[in-house]
Amino acid sequence: MKRKLSMLEILQCLLQVGFIYIQFICENKKNCTYDQKITQAYLILLILIVTILKTKMEGNRWMFIIWLPSFILSIFHKIFHTYTQVEVIYISALMSLLYILLLICFPIYEIPQVIELSESSEKYPKYNVSCTSFPIDMQKSSMVTVYYPTSSEKCNSSSFEGDLCMLESDYWDYHYTSIFKQYKIPGFILDIALSGLKKYKVNLQANLPIIQKNNLKPIIFSHGFMGSRTMYSIIMKQLASLGYVIFCVEHYDVIKEKEVEKIKDKVIRKNVFKEVKEQELEARTTKIKSMIDLIQNEKELNSLVNQNLSLDKNNITLMGHSYGGATVQCSAFKYAEHVKALVCLDPWLFPMKDTYLEQKLNIPVLYINSESFNKTMIWAEIDQRNQKIFQNCQQKEKSFNCYIKDMDHVQQGDIGLAIPNEAKLVNLIRYPLRTLEFNLYNAKLIELFLNNIAFSHQKAEADYSQNLTKNIFNPLKRDSFQFFRQEFQQNFDSSRQMYTLEFKGKSLYQ
Description:
This protein is 46% helix and 14% strand. The chain is an alpha/beta fold. It has two domains: 7-105; 128-163 and 206-504, Alpha/Beta hydrolase fold, catalytic domain (Rossmann fold, 3-Layer(aba) Sandwich), CATH 3.40.50. Strands 1-2-6-5-7-8-9-10-12-11 form a ten-stranded mixed sheet, with helices on both faces. The protein has a two-stranded antiparallel ribbon with strand order 3-4.
């Protein structure tokens, strides 16, 4: 993974060190020369300019709340000439040093452009990728970001300007209103300390023209709880480069966690929580249905996207992560006539009504689970519910249930690159340097499932294990060595009733 460096951040730190150094000199001499005073004034001005530019262009990270008081203390010392109070300088210097150390210890990594994970062919050519965003309906009740293949390189025309951020403004505004106000967190603190996430680019230029090709296969994606439609760009870009058009729907969940937390009885709290999430799940599936209907209405869709899309309306794939996995699972049951394949990334099936667990689904299904999610949420019975649904699949010969060894729940999205060590600190990620690798393997598995199984015209092998070996394991073994320089191994985990996929050795993308 490539570490993301901010020249403005480095300049800010250097200027602050220089400013404190001059203050130490003045303190030791108990007097400041005229030139030293002028230098301090210029340094203060430069620090302010750099800080404003950084906030405007790149945003700030959480450790900025440590740097800001140190700078204020330095100015306070300068303005009021508190040279007898040496403690002020030392405190300011220590806070600045702590800020620099935190920047080093908590890096942020760049989200890469599309990475080649297989050989290009006439049947499966590779494309450049772009995106655009639009409201799902005229009431603008929810936004959709669509990733699509384009033949264009980056364009200098002003009509094609715009880069996608990991957290768009509508996500930020809504979640502050629904979550942070519950806990009485002032908005300006979030704007100061976390604005870097709002400006974290996903390395993708928006609004380039889509390729002129008929019957592109659409995928509708549903994000997880507290997630965002733009938080899975690594996987989406990889799939769009293969010719898929992915519609990522934003869900503005009604957050009632604080109300539930007040209930002391654990059983009652769990039941109330399930009822709340069941209601939210119904609202989420309604958004998926709106997107399905929009795909069927080509004229309206093209007017919203401002592109000439030609989609294969009869071959829609639903895909979701975590809570989004439950969302698309329910949607596949409710709108089965429109759905031809289902992909669930670590699905959190707890909110699903128990009646869904007994229903049968007559489409190919792919489950990619993490190793640890079921262990951290034993009360949610993740594996048990997962197995019940998978056992009722009518097309088992075309379905695949697996988990990736060492992968954690949040490593199926971009957030692990934005806050890798922070996530490790709170036990969300065990191996932060493998986040990009795991995202790419998820994309690779989805690619093999859709191309070789779900939409393949070849007849499936009669033997289930032979079918998986031919269409999943052998290609994965070949590509993991060629493109990742890793050894691939699969085993059947009888305790979890699914395959475990293990990738050994240091990847090229660590």
